[in-house]
């Protein structure tokens, strides 16, 4: 029974697929809206910046970034989530402020030193190879670039100090974590890091 439940949850939230994945996307959009808004505020994108959004899911945070930055580029491995994000950000896509493509944290498809900031909300636990992902995110950021990652603490199978170590090993500096509480949700681990200028 537990295995069936885990598979159903994975189809809805982990690796969204089909109608169940689309339903999961709608749930994520509602439940995570406050977290997405907080993380985008922490990131503080400006009107001249390019921001890479890793795992935008249904596109709530992607839209918030696209409304503030020059360009928001969302990469997600789920076609269902890309469709949800495309619907949510349709006007910003037409305006050239949001772009979507298939990808992961470790394989963004982004050119080296092409983004001013990277943001990721509630998908760190799904990164297949965290060290490789941190290296990739470091590679795509310009000098002085910043990284903001947030994930529900309960979903992580890694200690915060290990995340700090992995990000530091990729080249990030000023790496720190904190616990954030958003309404009635369980606490989230927030990681902030920078690329040396």
TrEMBL record:
The keyword Cell cycle does not apply. Gene3D superfamilies: Vaccinia Virus protein VP39. One of its GO terms (biological process) is methylation. Residues 53-149 form the Methyltransferase type domain. Keywords: Methyltransferase, Transferase. It comes from the Bacteria. InterPro entries: Methyltransf_11 (IPR013216), Methyltransf_Superfamily (IPR050508), SAM-dependent_MTases_sf (IPR029063). The keyword Chloroplast does not apply. GO terms for molecular function: S-adenosylmethionine-dependent methyltransferase activity. SUPFAM superfamilies: S-adenosyl-L-methionine-dependent methyltransferases. PANTHER family: METHYLTRANSFERASE (PTHR42912). This is Methyltransferase domain-containing protein. It comes from Saccharothrix algeriensis.
């Amino acid at each position: 029974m537990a295995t069936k439940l885990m598979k159903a949850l994975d189809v809805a939230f982990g690796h969204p697929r089909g109608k169940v994945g689309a339903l999961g996307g709608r749930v994520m959009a509602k439940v995570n809206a406050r977290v997405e808004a907080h993380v985008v505020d922490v990131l503080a994108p400006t009107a001249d910046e390019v921001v890479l959004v890793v795992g935008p899911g249904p596109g709530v945070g992607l839209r918030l970034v696209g409304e503030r930055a020059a360009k928001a580029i969302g990469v997600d491995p789920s076609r269902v989530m890309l469709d949800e994000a495309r619907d949510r950000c349709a006007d910003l896509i037409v305006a050239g402020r949001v772009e979507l493509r298939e990808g992961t944290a470790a394989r963004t498809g982004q050119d080296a030193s092409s983004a001013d900031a990277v943001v990721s909300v509630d998908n760190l636990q799904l990164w297949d190879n965290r060290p490789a992902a941190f290296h990739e995110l470091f590679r795509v950021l310009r000098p002085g670039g910043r990284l903001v990652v947030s994930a529900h603490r309960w979903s992580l199978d890694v200690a915060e100090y290990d995340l700090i170590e992995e990000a530091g090993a990729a080249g990030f500096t000023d790496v720190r974590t904190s616990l954030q509480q958003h309404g009635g949700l369980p606490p989230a681990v927030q990681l902030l890091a920078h690329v040396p200028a």
